[in-house]
Structure formats: structure tokens, C-alpha cells
Amino acid sequence: MRCKFCEKPAFIKLHYPKMYLCPEHFTEYFERKIKRTIERYKLLKPDERVLVVVSGGKDSAVTAYVLKKLGYDIECLHINLGIGEYSEKSEEHAQKQCEALGVPLHIVRVKELLGHGIGEVRTRRPTCSYCGLTKRYIFNKFAYDNGFDAVATGHNLDDEASFIFSNMMHWNTQYLAKQGPLTPGEGKFVKKIKPLYELTEREVVAYALANGIEYHSEECPHAHGATTLEFKEVLNDMEEKRPGTKINFVKGYLRKKHIFEAELEEVELRECKICGMPSSGEVCSFCRFWRLEEPLDFRVKKINGKGR
């Protein structure tokens, strides 16, 4: 097949909208969608400093690559989760990606910082649950401590559709009230954005291939059996039968999101007595889980004008 715009051999067949594209026109299409997402949802202003959370995988690598290409002022943060060889390979890929882009990379190693890696803590809490808690706290506090205007993550359309689907199946209205491409900043909460919000995982993989972006493809060993993966499979089957299912589902949710927001319980936030970050109780869930007695300080020291 031939590219719709230039008659060169097709690199990819898009199912929605249905068309064949060569590498050059697919790259143009992909980057234009990110620009439109940023504009449509008012994710960023041109002069804002952005901290991109990079895992070493495809989604965050592509997010950093495109934001840099579009001219945004970015730096990257990698959180090494302390999961043996998996985390070592992830960090190596994150370093290579940032070196190729020529952007600063900051690394926080959970095991060095907190004494245990993810999966090593004795707890009844599911591993993915406290891993998520840990990552969210670290990237928000790192961004706050270092004066970033926004935190960008690599969540794509498949991630968002499966998360919404999962929470609708369980009627977790508190979560459904807060989802979307933009979480506004407030107080010590730094604004969070998802530039890949309207792009599928398949499109992200294709963009990485078309632009020579290397990434860590191994799945986290703790992700096996996660319910979100099961919901992704259901949505993939529906997408194959009816192209456009995922994007229409997510856009429909955004149109009706106000229904869930109306049920959102207002929680009065105070400062955690240990770290000073927002908390619904005397001690925040992060400090309570990790049994911290002193606050973590992520401020980057400057040596000769450069961060270290």
C-alpha cells in the first residue's frame, strides 16, 4: 500500500482514522495530534518548565522526545524502583534516551532512599498500589522542590481507557472525578499533564520505530495479573471490531465527567507534620507507609550552574 499523501510505501495503517502513512507523514500526524492535545486541553504554556517522568519505556521516551522537539523546556526524572535487573535495565535506557536528547536526567533510587525496593516491603497492600503511591509522591515533591511548572507522564489512550473502564466497572466515583489529560496544580501539588492522551499504544510504538527511539520493552514483573491489563485486552478486542471505540469512549467520559465531579467529597487538606506536603490526615500516606521520621529533600544542588 501507498502513503495517502505522497505515494511512498506505507509504514503504518491507521485504523481510526483509516489511512496509510509513510514514516515522514506518520511522524507529522503524530506530532500534530500532540500539539492539538496540548492546545485543546490547555496543558502547557510556551515558557513553562516541564519535568518529564521517564521510565526507560516507550511512552515516556516518546513524550520527552516530542516535547523537546516542539521547543519546550524539559528535564527528566527517572525513579529506579529497586526491582533487580528490571530496574537496572530501565535506568540504563532512561540514561541513553536523555543523552540522545541532550536533556538533564535526575535519578531517584527508591532502595537507596527508603531502604527497600518495590516488592520488598512486608505489607498486605498490593505491590502496584504502594508503587503508584511512591512514584506519585516522589515526582510531585521533586517537581515542587525544584520549581517545575508541570510534570509530564507517558500515559496513552490505551492506559486512560482501561483505567476509566476499570473504575466504571467498580463505580469508583472518587477516581472517575479526577481523571483527564490535565490535573491542575494547587498549592504544593504541581500540575500534571498527559500529552499522549489521544494516541494509542500502537501509534506510540510506531512513532518510536519511525524515529529510532530505543526503549526498554520488558514488562514489570509485578504487573503480571494486573486487572488493568485484562481491561486493556477487552478494549483491544472491541477496537479491532469497531475502530475508534477507545477514543470515543474516553471523549464521552470527558463530556460526562461533571456527573462524577458532583459526587466528589471535599476533603480538607492540611500539611503533613513530617514532610509538609498536602495530607488529609496528620501524616500523609507516603510518610505513614514508609514510616518516615524526617522529610525527603529533592532539591538539586547546583555546581557551576549545572544541576547534580
- In N-to-C order, the SSE pattern is EEHEHEHEHHEHHEEHHHEEHEE
* Widest sheet, order of strands: 5-4-3-6-8-7
How much of the polypeptide forms β-strand, as a percent range?
Answer: 5-15%
CATH architecture term: 3-Layer(aba) Sandwich
Name the poorly predicted regions: 303-308
Mean pLDDT: 94
Q: What distance lies between the first and last C-alpha atoms, to the nearest angstrom?
A: 50 Å
Number of helices: 11
CATH superfamily: HUPs
Task: Describe the protein's topology.
Layout: E1 12-15, E2 18-21, H1 23-40, E3 49-53, H2 58-69, E4 73-80, H3 84-101, E5 105-109, H4 110-114, H5 127-145, E6 150-152, H6 157-169, H7 173-176, E7 182-183, E8 191-193, H8 201-210, H9 227-241, H10 245-261, E9 270-271, E10 278-279, H11 285-290, E11 302-303, E12 306-307
Parallel strand pairs: 3-4, 3-6, 4-5, 6-8
Antiparallel strand pairs: 1-2, 7-8, 9-10, 11-12
Helix pairs in contact: 1-8, 2-3, 2-8, 6-9, 6-10
